[in-house]
Specification:
82 residues; alpha+beta; two-stranded antiparallel ribbon; two-stranded antiparallel sheet; 3 helices
């Protein structure tokens, strides 16, 4: 095994260990597509425009309230699976 393969394998193992899995306690049959749909909807619900003074009127920024997104996901039944 050369160095590139060893480095790629080490990175893969590291990333796999950092992955968080979620399950829905209300709907155990829900999987990844439903999780991402709920996450998208919660982020949309809790995204707010920031007022900025800019020379370009088309420039705009938004802020996502991550705490409210997390609460929204919990309300929809999503919990971290251990």
């Amino acid at each position: 095994m050369d160095r590139r393969h060893a480095a790629a394998l080490a990175l893969l193992v590291l990333l796999a260990g950092c992955t968080q899995y979620y399950r829905n306690v209300r709907h155990p049959e829900y999987a990844n597509p439903e999780f991402h749909q709920d996450l998208y909807e919660c982020r949309q619900k809790h995204t707010y425009p920031l007022s900025t003074l800019s020379e370009n009127p088309g420039d705009s920024s938004v802020q996502i309230d991550q705490d409210l997104v997390q609460l929204c996901m919990v309300e929809r039944g999503w919990r971290r699976a251990n």
